[in-house]
């Protein structure tokens, strides 16, 4: 299963690197969102400072939706899903590989956005341990949820609009917990944020286990 996951992840990341969609479109879009929020809230620095954690994770969710749609775009071609079903790859391995590829793209986006909020918003990343401890499970949970719901929409002609409707409501708890944890890290009170990081870990584990168990059935039905 691990070998299958690495194979699928390498394939998706190789395809993404060749097309340059992530570097050429998704990352500039994410930075542009930060810039627009900065222009909108800059007249009141107090509001901007308070909103920074939430703006960061809202932008990450936007990127996650785009990355999930890209991950399943190739599977929408005629015959690709049938070929995937006929391979010897374990369904759980395919799911984990898809989630890993999305997670890698999200980590890159988060690094760029992190630099953006420091430069544009003047955020002080003093609680870096909590920031990392929050970002890792949050990214895993977002990638797992996106990959699980993405396979539901892969065979639909309206997948571009249905994926956000399926994924974003489910990720609302991640947005809340990650925002609270980042608020504690940026405010210099990391002890208040670690319980939220623990909640994110539970969410990530739940979706990874659910996805590994259900992916094969969902792929057959999609």
Brief descriptors of the model:
222 residues; 9 helices; 85% helix; globular
Protein architecture, described:
- It is built from nine helices and no strands.
- It has 222 residues and is mainly alpha-helical.
- The protein has one domain.
- The radius of gyration is 18 Å and the shape is globular.
- The two termini are 22 Å apart.
Rg (CA only): 18 Å
Mean pLDDT, all residues: 84
Overall domain count: 1
Helix content: over 70%
* Secondary-structure class: mainly alpha
Biggest sheet overview? none
Summarize the helix and strand pattern as letters: HHHHHHHHH
The number of helices is: 9
- Low-confidence parts, pLDDT < 50 over ≥5 residues? none
Number of strands: 0
Strand content: under 5%
Shape: globular
Distance between the termini: 22 Å
Q: How would the blueprint of this fold be written?
A:
Layout: H1 2-19, H2 21-41, H3 45-73, H4 80-86, H5 91-121, H6 128-153, H7 159-170, H8 172-187, H9 194-221
Structure summarized in a few sentences:
The chain has one domain (2-221).
